[in-house]
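Quick one: structure for this chain?
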Amino acid sequence: MTNVETKLPVWFWVVAVLALVWNALGVMAYLSDNGSGAGTPAWAVSAFAVAVFGGVLASILLLLRKNIATAVFALSLLGVLVQQYYFYAVAEMEGGVPPMSVLIVVGAVFLLWFSRFCGNKGWLG
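Got it. Here's what it folds into:
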């Protein structure tokens, strides 16, 4: 990246702010739920924490236009996948996959892709 400030499209800022809001809602869910019940193993609760706190940190880094946002979004996605694994493989949640679970995974994948896209465009430094 050069010293000349790159003018970013407005939609970059919209997506970055929405990413922060989305992940902040995840933090609120974590703080109000935090495992929600006896028997949730520490590794599953930890995965939830990595997913949401990592997502907030990555979103802030994206707003600050830092390349490391991509790595932190990848870590957040890993937390999401481990958490979903717990719900559906270990805890054997019944009733099919709720739309919110799908939205969480799709959102995490999108944010990782978006940060890579922005990095490839030279918008992150």
